[in-house]
Specification:
This protein is an alpha/beta fold. Helices cover 32% and strands 16% of the residues. The protein has an 8-stranded parallel beta sheet, with helices on both faces.
Length: 316
Amino acid sequence: MAEDFFTPVSGMELPRFAGVPSFMRLPVVPPGHDRFDDVDIGIIGVPWDSGTTNRPGPRHGPRQLRDASTMIRAENAATRVRPFELVNCADLGDVGINPADIDDSMDRITGFYRKLASSGIRPLTAGGDHLTSLPVLRALAEDGPLGMVHFDAHTDLFHSYFGGTMYTHGTPFRRAVEEELLDPKRVVQIGIRGTAYDFEDRDFAEAVGIRVIPIEEFFARGVQDVMAEAVEIVGEAPTYVSYDIDFVDPVYAPGTGTPEVGGPTAFQALQVVRALQGLDIVGADLVEVSPPFDQSGATAWLGVSIMFELLCVMAR
């Protein structure tokens, strides 16, 4: 049972447009705070997009996601989960990244998440581009490789970009497999689509045993069937969930750097997360929200709605 200290501010007590915004109106408890060790699930912003190779902007994602998240209420109307009553949740602030240095930023991110791991805090991350996942996994997988459920239009399994650049938002999970942070036979990637330069990423996935479910198969089989397979693949061992907002069709989520047409609806975007119930989720992220490409805020609102669904399955 969560403590009163960790209860979000209610919109019935203070209007949602008022006050200092925090993730889901939770208390802000950064490392060093006297209640830090009491947190069960921490929400963190990683305002960083140095791995972006085309349209920049996800560095501004956490701020817009925080603002949009003030609309989140106490209960999931579909699953009836009230996560803030089940576990102690808090906004742990933003990682202090270095926008001019990728290696230094990754070290800073890994160091921040090691503090969480040492305190037994499970992280829910708001990125940031998808390279963010790699330094997070470096902190969470120190005791052994994790499984992963990955929602995305892209595999992010490429070897390198521009003749040898190894760290971009298109390479994090290639690096994670090479560094033995992920067990490839317990990794499933869902929603993959779009035009391609080649099939190097798909060939790598097949060679190491990663299950890739392209969007055509997703629609042909349906959410429940696909997600039942995903749950079976990762099994009962510790699992990470990585959710790129471009998994969703850009009609519903235009604010992202690499949109791909022909994706799931906003409702299906929530359904796939609800189907993760029962997994041993040690951490999750929602990445690639880019506010400059959707000043309406609709993409961010969908993003935080997905984060709330992730929080609900982690809390249960």
